[in-house]
Amino acid sequence: MAAEPSTRTELLIKLREVFIQRGFDGATLAHLSAASELSKATLYHHFPGGKNEIIEQLIRFSIAQLQTAAFASLHSADPPRDKIVGLISGFETYLIDSNRGCLLAVLSHHEANNDELGPHQKMIADQFADWQGQLSQTFAASGMKRKKSARQASELIAGLYGALVTSRLHNDPKLLTNLLERLRKHHAAS
Asked: Which residue in 152, 13, 32 sits closest to 87, CA to CA?
């Protein structure tokens, strides 16, 4: 095997790519080992809890990156409209930086074999609820009533992830760019 990734971030990026491409069940330790250029034993050294620990760390890593790239704009001093446009642009940046994939979207349906959320899904769902609340407050700050701002927040998140899924289904990155640009223009004009 080649040399270990030089930083923890580099390692997490390599491992995240495997899960984005293969999903939770398809990402075997052999795939993770090959992508990270680490032996299975070394992976267990870094992640003694195995695949579940890797996923938990990757979820936290992806949340932090998405927060920094996109949702942090909601806490700027900009007017609400600019905050929302900044969120959309930041979401696009996040997707470009993560090879047009979102681990949170990939994992959101894993463990969905009953009515209860699995621990990974719950972690993701809780974060999305928080982000949706922040976004709803931003819409409310623009003068919208509470119910409408909550609906707008939900619709915008659905639009962002709908654009991602549609683009991936059609294997057309330009489609994602075009859909996000339409969302930006719509919210810039609101």
From this structure: 152
